[in-house]
Inverse folding.
């Protein structure tokens, strides 16, 4: 018999060039599992060996797999959502916003301390040579359209599903303004979004288990419960 359960596909951080799903978001995995969720921590290839567009494709592939293949493991997804932190927050948001098929679409997306404007047009963070040299392999003025194409703030559309954005107020790598500007764009477009500033938190506040990580995980659980599970079909 198959169990009808909601599924979260988690995309780890690591600056697009590294990272490990087993070393991040452990409190989130455990909290959601105890609440009846199936958590999939996926792996993806890293830049510069692949393009960031190919990374986004891999995340969409993972969503398709969750929709179509989990049944063979005894799970009938009642809903599929995406979540991610840092570079993973960017990739999760992009996969959510660029879904073109039913089996690529998600019911919601959770972004934690993510990058939402690859071109950094509003100067929400310091200049990163890494994005030019290891991720995009070009400068903004050389490929402005490509930078916009992979920036979530430019891909919001009328069918954008609900977003939950969490960002540490003391994040020195990706300052909180990065998350705030994405929230503003979603709200301006009339799309459903909730914003949780994590007061006093640095970047990757969920990397190690602690009160901040557990509180954030509980906030994600409660938001998903209110936003997704009450709308999910029953078995």
């Amino acid at each position: 018999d198959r169990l009808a359960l909601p599924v979260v596909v988690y995309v780890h951080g690591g600056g697009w060039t590294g990272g490990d799903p087993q070393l991040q978001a452990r409190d989130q995995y455990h909290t959601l599992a105890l609440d009846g969720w199936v958590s999939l921590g996926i792996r993806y290839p890293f830049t510069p060996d692949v393009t960031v567009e190919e990374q986004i494709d891999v995340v969409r592939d993972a969503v398709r797999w969750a929709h179509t293949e989990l049944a063979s493991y005894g799970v009938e997804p009642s809903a599929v959502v995406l979540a991610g932190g840092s570079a993973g927050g960017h990739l999760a948001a992009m996969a959510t916003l660029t879904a073109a098929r039913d089996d690529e679409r998600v019911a919601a997306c959770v972004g934690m301390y993510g990058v939402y404007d690859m071109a950094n047009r509003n100067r929400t963070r310091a200049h990163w040579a890494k994005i030019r040299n290891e991720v995009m392999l070009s400068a903004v003025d050389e490929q402005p359209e490509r930078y916009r194409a992979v920036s979530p703030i430019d891909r919001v559309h009328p069918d954008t599903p609900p977003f939950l954005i969490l960002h540490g107020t003391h994040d020195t790598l990706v300052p909180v303004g990065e998350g705030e500007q994405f929230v503003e764009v979603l709200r301006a477009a009339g799309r459903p979004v909730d914003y949780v500033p994590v007061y006093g938190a640095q970047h990757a506040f969920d990397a190690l288990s602690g009160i901040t990580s557990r509180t954030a995980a509980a906030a994600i659980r409660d938001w998903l419960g209110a936003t997704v599970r009450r709308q999910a079909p029953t078995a």
